[in-house]
């Protein structure tokens, strides 16, 4: 399921740990014990950036955790393997880092897809 602006309403800042010069980064919502600061990272690959939340953000009832957006790359992503699996195209959760702003889901672009055009799912475009 795609991220919605309502998922990101309490974001106030995007922090980049690396320059966001990659064609794409993966974005995810992770449960974290804090509103701000570098979050825990338990995936393969590396954390590229994260969102900080406003003081008004509420922790989830029961768990006490905050939902925060993280940006990361995995070992087999294009920036590590330019001629690999994602030479053209990108993972489902991948977005162009140039489109990332607090409170706004990142978007796919021709740059993130390494292609000239993006064809929406379910499109009937046959190239004719």
From TrEMBL:
Polar residues: bias regions: 111-128
Species classification: Bacteria, Bacillati, Actinomycetota, Actinomycetes, Kitasatosporales
Protein name as catalogued: Transcription factor
Region (Disordered): 98-128
UniProt-listed InterPro entries: DUF6009
